[in-house]
Write a structure and sequence with these properties.
This protein is 51% helix and 9% strand. By secondary structure, it is mainly alpha-helical. It is globular and about 45 Å long.
């Protein structure tokens, strides 16, 4: 789901609410709230590292695949965001069967300072 609206319309409140509901149902895989004013919350590199870490906590097979990807490419933490997405999130999850649907909540993509990020997630 992609939620768009003008600034101040309450998108962050909706994202927090969805994240809490999913967490209560044990269906929240990860959440990330971009914020252009907070270092570490305004760069896309932190997004995929956070998602990979959260997914790794959910499933030991994903954790092993993420660890193997990092071991194979020590530059992955500073690699282009498209590489990080594929190697840290997409590939480790492709061979995983989740017992129930899971959600990843991402808020304020416009504060990520990376024009390619939305394209990566859309594809």
């Amino acid at each position: 789901m992609l939620l768009t609206a003008v600034a101040g319309a309450g998108k962050t409140t909706v994202a927090h609410t969805v994240a809490h509901i999913c967490a209560d149902r044990k269906q929240l895989a990860s959440s990330f709230f971009f914020n252009r004013e907070i270092e570490g919350r305004n760069k896309p590199h932190a997004l995929f590292a956070t998602i990979a870490a959260d997914l790794s906590q959910m499933d030991p097979d994903i954790a092993n695949r993420v660890a193997a990807a990092i071991e194979e490419d020590g530059c992955l933490p500073s690699a282009p965001t498209s590489n990080q997405f594929v190697d840290l999130v997409l590939n480790p999850c492709q061979r995983t069967s989740f017992v129930r649907p899971v959600a990843i909540v991402i808020d304020a993509l416009d504060e990520a300072r990376d024009d390619c990020l939305l394209e990566i997630l859309r594809d």
